[in-house]
């Protein structure tokens, strides 16, 4: 079953394309349904849903006469109003909820990280140590809720529903987040995760020198149906990109994999840095 967030994202992308094909500006479209242009852009970004009457009004303005297309978009609008499992964590930022929804619908995530272990591979202690340092986390209870969300996200990996290809800068393995013991357990967890059929971990060693995108972490989410999406997390806002940007980031990701050690050699490096033997 597709994630409601993924459906909203796909609906928003289609609405944006239809609007642009019709030569209608965001400001003009917003007037039709009596919302601000920023709200319309949030609809087109998949951040918020849209009700049937408003959707029909937009499609009329765009001159969409194809009955099958209209019915498809209206059905998507209804599906996009459903609630995912993460809805019970009501204090999650909307951008994070959107990412979780897209991730839940993806069949593969390609993740490049320069500083931290990918969220899908973090131990609870490692995740807790990171979140505790966040100045915007209001309380220890909020931290524990975020840790619980991260743990539940990882069921995508343990259940085999999602493939993960992770490329890490060697710095990720050395940064002592949470202290020596927490980091040792985290590296051991990476070794265990790398044994799964649906997880590939590669490390770019320091000796590689400069390489593509070394200043920017990113995720590429690929879906069985529909185009892929690039996600880049930022301090002042998150970025989602489609189309040509996905193709370009895929080329960069393939370059990163070529610069990285093989999965086997990467596991050997992780084992050496951790100082412990991986569990059989």
From TrEMBL:
CDD domains: HTH_XRE. It comes from the Bacteria. PROSITE patterns: HTH_CROC1. Residues 15-69 form the HTH cro/C1-type domain. One of its GO terms (molecular function) is DNA binding. This is Helix-turn-helix domain-containing protein. It comes from Micromonospora auratinigra. The lineage of its organism: Bacteria, Bacillati, Actinomycetota, Actinomycetes, Micromonosporales.
């Amino acid at each position: 079953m597709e994630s409601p967030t993924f459906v909203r994202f796909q609906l928003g992308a289609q609405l944006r394309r239809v609007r642009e094909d019709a030569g209608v500006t965001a400001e003009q479209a917003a007037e039709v349904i009596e919302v601000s242009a920023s709200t319309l852009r949030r609809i087109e970004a998949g951040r918020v849903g849209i009700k049937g009457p408003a959707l029909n009004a937009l499609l009329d303005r765009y001159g969409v006469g194809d009955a099958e297309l209209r019915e498809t978009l209206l059905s998507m609008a209804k599906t996009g109003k459903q609630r995912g499992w993460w809805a019970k964590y009501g204090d999650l930022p909307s951008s994070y909820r959107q990412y979780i929804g897209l991730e839940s619908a993806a069949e593969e995530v390609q993740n490049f990280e320069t500083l931290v272990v990918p969220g899908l591979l973090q131990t609870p202690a490692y995740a807790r140590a990171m979140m505790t340092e966040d100045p915007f986390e209001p309380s220890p209870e909020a931290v524990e809720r975020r840790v619980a969300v991260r743990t539940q996200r990882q069921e995508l990996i343990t259940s085999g529903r999602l493939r993960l290809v992770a490329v890490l800068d060697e710095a990720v393995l050395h940064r002592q987040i949470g202290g020596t013991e927490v980091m040792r357990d985290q590296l051991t967890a990476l070794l265990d995760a790398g044994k799964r059929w649906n997880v590939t971990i590669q490390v770019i060693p320091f000796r590689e020198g400069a390489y593509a995108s070394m200043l920017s972490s990113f995720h590429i989410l690929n879906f069985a149906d529909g185009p892929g999406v690039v996600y880049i997390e930022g301090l002042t806002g998150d970025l989602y990109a489609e189309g040509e940007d996905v193709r370009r980031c895929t080329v960069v990701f393939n370059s990163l994999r070529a610069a990285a050690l093989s999965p086997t050699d990467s596991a050997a490096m992780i084992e050496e840095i951790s100082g412990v033997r991986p569990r059989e």
